[in-house]
Amino acid sequence: MPEEQIDWRETIDCLLDRSKRPFVPIDKTFVQMPRGSANREGPLATFVRNRDLRGLKAYLLIVASASSADENGEWHTTLPLQAWARAFGCFKYTSGQLSAKAAAGKIFARLEKRGLIKRTHDGGKRDVRVQLLAQDGSGGDYQRPKTGFLRLSHEFWKSKLDEQISLPALAMLLVILGERQPCELPSERMPEWYGWSADTAERGFRELAALGIIDKQSRPKKTPLSPTGFTTVNEYSVLPPYDRSSLERALRKRKRG
Question: Where are the domains of the chain?
Fold first, then answer.
């Protein structure tokens, strides 16, 4: 069967099915640096400012595919370059194997430049070994987050949401997943807190609500120094199957089964 006719979603499904969890654990520093940092924005801001949706989705899939560490404590996945290109959807946007592999290579190069992965070749130039690095973009060793991390459900791919979602919506989904529910996220604080504009955040909120991924509730909040003494704030919550309860049920089911 010609390479371009292979169902690229089957490659994604195989990567996810061999994972030990039904979600991708992502350290919060990928989205936002801790309080007290001189600059709060995490590596996610670079994807947003560069409009690199394909790179972001590829990175999330790479993290999902690295399900355990090897004997040296390294987290990596090795696949033929053609398989990576399929998983990244490169055959959808290019014509021919050479173009698709070149597109995948450019994605890897961007992720390497951002200090998120290390790429080497196994078996000559055919197989590409992709090793995870620290998710804060420092280039340090990757450590699987154990506490204080966000969880992106594999339903993101299983439901084909990855084919529908825009970059602003995906960025805001990752933000909300890292917060206690419900959460207040004032759009005007986005440049300071995360590194992208209030308009980008609002577009993301609207799309997530339209897709049925988040719930938005408005409520009054006391502001004693304002003219009326009150203001209206928005609170956001993630809905199933992306919420914490749904993921915990999926994890229990996987362990039983």
Answer: 3-256
